[in-house]
């Protein structure tokens, strides 16, 4: 097994290689505006670090969000393209699940990432491997009672300490955590979700109202 894992659902552009036993190379850079520019060089870098070529990859793991449209599109289109070119399966993993796995907390807790617009993408977890709720997007104040008293991880939790007073790192997801979680689930015979994006809301870019379509005469 050689899994290439990547995630662009948060400001982090993160890539890792997992050989079936553990992560053998990884790279993470935080830049919310340069996902498309940074992702391919990061893939080249981890392959070079591992001394391997792309054709050695036997599977792709992609973070499916939730996250903003533009960032998610970069990672998922890259994963789909590589999967098609190499003839290997492409597996999806919820980005919040990757953060929960990296947090390695034993008791109930919350993962929250920054959804902008003064909102967070979030979910509750029983432990680092077990999600209790579907990913959702809400204003922090609207979920304050649901998360009251719980530890929290992720950039969204760190941004709103009044709602998440027990917030701490990790701030962003790492592909290393995604790869370890995916490898663990695949080894257990679990079927991972398709690499389709969890947007949870419409993209920021909208067609203007009263838009007139011009057709040739």
TrEMBL record:
Matches recorded under SUPFAM superfamilies: Actin-like ATPase domain (SSF53067)
Annotated Gcp-like domain residues: 32-144
The protein, known as: tRNA (Adenosine(37)-N6)-threonylcarbamoyltransferase complex dimerization subunit type 1 TsaB
PANTHER family: TRNA N6-ADENOSINE THREONYLCARBAMOYLTRANSFERASE, TRNA THREONYLCARBAMOYLADENOSINE BIOSYNTHESIS PROTEIN TSAB
GO molecular function: tRNA N(6)-L-threonylcarbamoyladenine synthase activity
Domain of life from the UniProt record: Bacteria
Lineage: Bacteria, Bacillati, Actinomycetota, Actinomycetes, Kitasatosporales
Keywords: Acyltransferase, Transferase
Keyword Transcription regulation belongs to the record: no
Class of this enzyme: transferase
Organism: Streptomyces fimbriatus
UniProt EC number: 2.3.1.234
InterPro entries per the UniProt record, alphabetical: ATPase_NBD (IPR043129), Gcp-like_dom (IPR000905), T6A_TsaB (IPR022496)
Gene3D superfamilies: 3.30.420.40
Encoding gene per record: tsaB
């Amino acid at each position: 097994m050689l899994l290439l894992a990547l995630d662009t659902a948060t400001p982090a552009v993160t890539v890792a290689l997992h050989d079936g036993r553990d992560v053998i190379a990884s790279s993470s850079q935080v830049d919310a505006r340069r996902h498309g520019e940074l992702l391919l060089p990061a893939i080249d870098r981890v392959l070079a670090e591992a001394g391997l070529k792309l054709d050695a990859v036997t599977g792709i793991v992609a973070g499916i969000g939730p996250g903003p449209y533009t960032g998610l599109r970069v990672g998922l289109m890259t994963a789909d393209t590589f999967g098609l070119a190499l003839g290997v399966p492409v597996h999806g993993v919820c980005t919040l699940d990757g953060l929960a796995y990296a947090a390695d907390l034993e008791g109930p807790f919350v993962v929250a990432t920054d959804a902008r617009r003064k909102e967070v993408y979030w979910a509750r977890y029983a432990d680092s491997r077990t999600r209790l709720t579907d990913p959702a997007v809400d204003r922090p104040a609207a979920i304050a009672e649901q998360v009251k008293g719980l530890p929290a991880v992720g950039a969204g939790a760190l941004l709103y300490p009044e709602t998440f007073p027990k917030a701490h790192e990790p701030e962003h997801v790492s592909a290393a955590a995604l790869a370890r979680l995916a490898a663990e689930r695949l080894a257990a015979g679990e079927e991972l979700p398709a690499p389709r994006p969890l947007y949870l809301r419409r993209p920021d870019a909208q067609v203007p109202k009263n838009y007139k379509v011009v057709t040739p005469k």
